[in-house]
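step=encode ok
step=design start
structure_in=
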């Protein structure tokens, strides 16, 4: 097949599943744009009930429970899985062997781990509680089983969840044998063994094991979207398990608390349910109803996810240094929180334009 035919086929496929780019882009936008700061800058004393609700939802729950902001990382792990059947099927169709793709996956996982460790660590401390470092594990696990039958992929995903739960409950180490107590659980012990410290805000690197289920379920969702099914059947195949996941996850909460910091089984299941529902709704709105103008704003962020994740901090600091002198003089009559909100919105827009520029120039930076 010629390059032009491949390009045409790829374009048609991307048009058919534009919701994947939008879902990925929305997740990246929430992850790197800094929009959560807008609500964080609001005065907690004078804030109204609606703004107060959003301020709470745009921050992590301190320990037990679930807020909207706690879903961003599961969404990220999930959408990576959704893309995998599409990308690897193209490689296999053009003649790449499984061994070649496995080598590619190993190389990519290695660099994700190194990059994740590097951007989270300092000169004297190590930290593997980064999305990239955890993705290096979930991506590899999901790839190794993605050619097996759906039932076996489900078995592996739930086995990872169950084994993790059992380790938290029954791994006996002095000071680390309280499964759902911050800083005194199996995950904190693994953090101590791996990095020499468990002082990472109660986030633990072992989360990569249970949250591999998110990437595996993403692979299954991508497989469904690739099938030659009627749109309604695809939506129901995503929506029904998603609803079941939410019901089951919340029902588990009295017995196994929903804790994102250590990715308890109830958290994995309920957030996986929300991920499936989010994908189903995105597919329905964007690919079925053809609602694309506003979603395109987010899709631009999804075109260069690795680049924008790594560079967002540098860009935001640089853009902030450019515009803040003007904002403080123009809006000096108001308070610093208002200026910070205005600055955040403008910088997010400038960050979007960087992504849009790369998209228009057809520059896509990937491992």
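sequence_out=
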């Amino acid at each position: 097949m010629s390059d032009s035919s491949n390009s045409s086929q790829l374009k048609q496929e991307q048009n058919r599943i534009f919701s994947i780019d939008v879902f990925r882009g929305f997740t990246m936008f929430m992850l790197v744009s800094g929009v959560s700061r807008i609500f964080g800058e609001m005065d907690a004393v004078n804030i109204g009930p609606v703004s107060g609700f959003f301020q709470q939802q745009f921050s992590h729950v301190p320990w037990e429970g679930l807020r909207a902001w706690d879903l961003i990382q599961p969404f990220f792990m999930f959408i990576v899985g959704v893309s995998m059947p599409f990308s690897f099927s193209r490689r296999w169709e053009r003649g790449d062997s499984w061994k070649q793709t496995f080598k590619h996956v190993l190389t990519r996982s290695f660099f994700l781990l190194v990059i994740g460790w590097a951007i989270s660590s300092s000169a004297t401390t190590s930290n593997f509680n980064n999305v990239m470092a955890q993705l290096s594990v979930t991506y590899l696990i999901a790839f190794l089983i993605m050619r097996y039958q759906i039932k076996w992929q489900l078995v592996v995903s739930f086995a990872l969840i169950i084994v993790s739960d059992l380790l938290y409950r029954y791994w006996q180490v002095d000071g680390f044998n309280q499964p759902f107590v911050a800083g005194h659980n199996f995950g904190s012990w693994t953090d101590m063994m791996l990095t020499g410290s468990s002082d990472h805000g109660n986030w633990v690197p072992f989360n990569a094991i249970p949250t591999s289920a998110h990437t595996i379920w993403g692979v299954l969702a991508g497989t469904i979207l690739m099938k030659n099914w009627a749109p309604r059947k695809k939506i129901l195949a995503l929506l029904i398990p998603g609803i079941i996941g939410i019901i089951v996850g919340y029902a588990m909460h009295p017995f196994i608390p929903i804790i994102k910091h250590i990715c308890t089984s109830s958290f994995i299941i309920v957030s996986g349910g929300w991920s499936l529902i989010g994908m189903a709704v995105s597919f329905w709105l964007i690919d079925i109803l053809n609602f694309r103008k506003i979603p395109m704003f987010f899709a631009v962020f999804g075109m260069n996810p690795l680049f924008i994740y790594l560079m967002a901090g540098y860009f935001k600091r640089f853009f902030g240094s450019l515009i803040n002198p003007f904002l403080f003089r123009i809006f000096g009559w108001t308070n610093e929180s208002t200026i910070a909100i205005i600055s955040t919105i403008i910088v997010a827009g400038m960050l979007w334009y960087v992504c849009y520029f790369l998209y228009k120039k057809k520059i896509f930076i990937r491992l």
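step=design ok
step=annotate ok -> The CA atoms of residues 63 and 181 lie 9 Å apart.
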